[in-house]
Structure formats: C-alpha cells, structure tokens
Amino acid sequence: MKYCSNCGTLVELRVPEGDTLPRHVCSACNIIHYQNPKIVVGSIPEWEDQILLCRRAIEPRHGLWTLPGGFMENAETLVQGAERETLEEANARVEMGDLYSIYNLPHINQVHILFRARMLDLDFKPGIESLDVKLFHETEIPWDTLAFRVISEPLRRYFEERRKGKLGFHMGTIEELQK
C-alpha cells in the first residue's frame, strides 16, 4: 500500500501506538490501514460415493481441477459463501453439511474453509469460472492435475477417512497435514 484511501497522502509502515505489528499509517489523517487475511470458502459436493470437481477456466492454475470455492464476500456467512461459490462454479445446488476443514496459509495471507455438501440433484454444468465439472469416484480423481495443495491434501484425507467410516474436522496448515 502506498497511498491513503481516505485522503490520498503517502502512507508509512510503522507500529502505531498501542499496537504490536507494523501497519500502513497515513501521516496526514492518521488513519491506520489494517490488512487482514482473505477467507476462501468452498465445499466438497457429494453425490452417493462421488464428489464434484471443477476444471478452472481462470488463473491461477487455469485448466486444472479443484473443488468449488472462492473468496468470501461481505455480508455473507461462511455457509452462504460456500453455497454461492458452488452454484457459481458448478451450477450445483447443495445442502451444506458439517464444517470439514480450516487451513491457514500465512505465506499468502489466506484461510481456506471447506464444508461437506450433499448435492440435491444431478443438474450441474460449468459456471463462468469453470471449463468443465464432473463427478469422480475416488479412483478417478485426477490427482496429478489438481490445482492446489490446499485442495489435494484435504481431499486425500477425506477419502481416507471415508473408507474408515469416520469423517472428522481438521484445522492447521498444509505443512502440518503432510506430517
């Protein structure tokens, strides 16, 4: 950040009085500009023993497969955001289930939240951000062409737990999952 969004003056990076972290502070109007992580919400849409994946039509990772998800919008809940993203990317209507995972990605200032979701019907098709959408059995998952580790690692754990009949909640970083 270079300029204050309130008055246009150059900002300086410093620790404001009473704070412990460096912030962008306007030297003219003294507004502190906080920068916080982005929240990414998504779902694991289930139909019988299959899950729905989307092939990305946008960057980053154009052409690779992922679960439906994206940045949360203002004035919506986590569940509303995950439902909206599933509808936008796959035109799939779902009933949101349990919270499945929360993964922190501090290196890119994001928090990823995934819910299990039950597909209400088989009426789905690619949305504007998807080249294709398809249901996959576990043995058909295109593991080598999944777009993000924050999707592949939870998905691997999801299938492992489902085989054992015990799906749980997970929280941590991707690095912690790989231990």
What are the defining features of this structure?
eight-stranded mixed sheet, Nucleoside Triphosphate Pyrophosphohydrolase, 179 residues, three-stranded antiparallel sheet, 2 domains, 3 helices, Ubiquitin Ligase Nedd4, Chain: W, alpha+beta
Can you walk me through this structure?
This protein has 179 residues and is an alpha+beta fold. The chain folds into two domains: 1-35, Ubiquitin Ligase Nedd4, Chain: W; 38-177, Nucleoside Triphosphate Pyrophosphohydrolase (Alpha-Beta Complex), CATH 3.90.79.10. It has three helices and eleven strands; from the N terminus they run βββββββαβββαβα. Strands 4, 5, 6, 7, 8, 9, 10 and 11 form an eight-stranded mixed sheet that branches. It has a three-stranded antiparallel sheet with strand order 1-2-3, with no helix packed on it. The two termini are 36 Å apart.
